[in-house]
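Issue: copy button drops trailing tokens. Both records pasted manually instead:
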Amino acid sequence: MSEEPYRSDEDYEPESGAASENGAQQYDEASFADRVNEAIGEGVADLAVADLIQKVAERTNELQTAQHELSERTADLQRLQAEFVNYKRRVERDRQQVVELAQGKVIGELLGVLDDIGRARDHGELEGGFRRVAESLESVLTKMGLEQFGAAGDAFDPNLHEALMHQASTEVAAGDVAAILQPGYRFGERVLRVARVAVAEDGE
């Protein structure tokens, strides 16, 4: 084996393309990219791109499916919320109706007492402690929603009036209410008792 003669650092000259002035190898980037592509091969590169496109398409389909399912679940939730609100309204309406029916039944039992109070007042017999009790009872029932109705001159309404007799009148048009024989009462929208009336007719 031949031995190369010793050369000092001053005598050493770098081979062509071996090193730059800062000691790093210089590469031609375009040439390097060409060599990499050549090593990979066009078929392999095309296959990698196609696989990537397929995976992106699969993820896009999955995302669209998830968005569709989210829309359906959101619609279901909104429908359930609407049904729950309607259910609460029905329950509240039914509860209110039950309360009103119960109150109406109790108040209906007191209408006879109110009639006695009215007669006593008309005859000047409402005095002393009985007067205070009567006024207190009427005040409480009014606050609860009890309303008395019926007056001379009202248009006769078979839903609100019961005609017990006819009465000649020059002050009220024929067919209207000439006199109240027994007042009617309503509680809220419910008529507890129709007014019993005399209906006017022509003549003296």
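Record 2 (pasted manually too):
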Amino acid sequence: MSFRTRNEEKTYKISNVSYSSRIRFLAVARNDIRFKVILSFLTIVLLSACGNKTQSTDSEQSAAKTDSAATSNKKTILFFGDSLTAGYGLDDPSEAFPGVIQRKIDSAKLPYTVVNAGVSGETTAGGLGRIDWALKQKVDIFILELGANDGLRGIPAAETAQNLQAIADKVKAKYPEAKLVLLGMQVPPSMGGDYANSFKAVFPKVAADKKMALVPFLLDGIGGNPKLNQADGIHPTAEGAKIAAENVWKVLKGQL
């Protein structure tokens, strides 16, 4: 083989190698471009998803803050009483007169939340013993419904009046701006005429002395009516509770 022939063969091999290398380089380059395009697309999709998730989370947090703010802006009406407030004997405690009033408030879209702090069997002395605990939560309107059990036990009217006054004093000391409402009670004539009259007089006197709004008689239109009372003749039925709520509402709505 001549020198020229060998050189031509080498040149061909070198050229052939260079051509193959270029082919491989271009293939790799094209694959690299495809990868970058796919990577860019996936990045956009992920960023979009994250953005939507962030927007969704922000919306949820905003809604939660709005709900929380709405709740915190509501004022509290505390019903502090005995079994009449607690709803003794009713299938659903929310059927008691405080629950009926809450529904009236909700229907009127008023910014108040009712708290039922009724305890069955409570006397005014028992209420005085637990009032500090009840006042741990902020109170804007305090509705005092105690005394019925005092009357049924024949506790001296002066003692009942003293306890009611002490409860009112504690509320005013803790929350000076709170409005107070006293629910009047009566006892049946069978307790004796003198006692019945002195007991009835307790409530308007305490209300006047402590500057409390007064509901003259919580059970007005209910007491003595078998259709509106449970079998014990003392506690209202659900229908009776609606009438009691109306008796309270006539006075309470002026305090809202």
